[in-house]
Amino acid sequence: MAILSRTSLQEAAIVKIDDARLLFENSRWSNAYYLYGYGIELALKACIARQILAETVPDPSILKGFLDHNFGRLISLSGLAEPLKVMRLDPEFDSRWSILTEWSVESRYDAIGSVTATAMQDAIESPTHGVFPWLKQHW
């Protein structure tokens, strides 16, 4: 496994979201959907990395949990559980978060149509209520 710095995780998240957008714009719904979710996973891992101090050994639960793909567990490890609760009071953000949480690493095997991919694209990229702009404030 390569060494993953917070910066490299941020860059990887941006690249995955950018690639997802290109796929979405070219009607490649399934792969766009998967990469949008993967981009958010990497963004959450950048948020987790922000909490790890240089020359310290993180809590073992963080080390083990870092390899997880579940957004709920990654949110807990990232320290964003409380800020997420506040954000979810906004119905616009809450509906987008709910769409995002339908994603899983197994989504790579799913045939995704345009409606589901469009909902995911909006959930991730909405400038005012999207999950990715919110996560970027915390990484």
Helix count equals: 8
Percent helix: 55-70%
Roughly how many Å apart are the termini?
Answer: 22 Å
Q: Could you give the order of the helices and strands?
A: HHHHHHHH
Give a written overview of the molecule.
With 139 residues, the chain is mainly α. The protein has one domain. It is built from eight helices and no strands. The longest helix is centred in the first third of the chain and has 22 residues, at 29-50. It starts with 5 loop residues before the first helix and ends with a helix. The model has no long low-confidence stretch (mean pLDDT 91).
Write the layout of secondary structure elements.
Blueprint: H1 6-25, H2 29-50, H3 60-65, H4 71-78, H5 81-87, H6 91-100, H7 114-125, H8 131-136
Notable characteristics:
about 140 residues, mainly alpha, 8 helices, globular
Short summary:
The protein is mainly alpha-helical and 139 residues long.
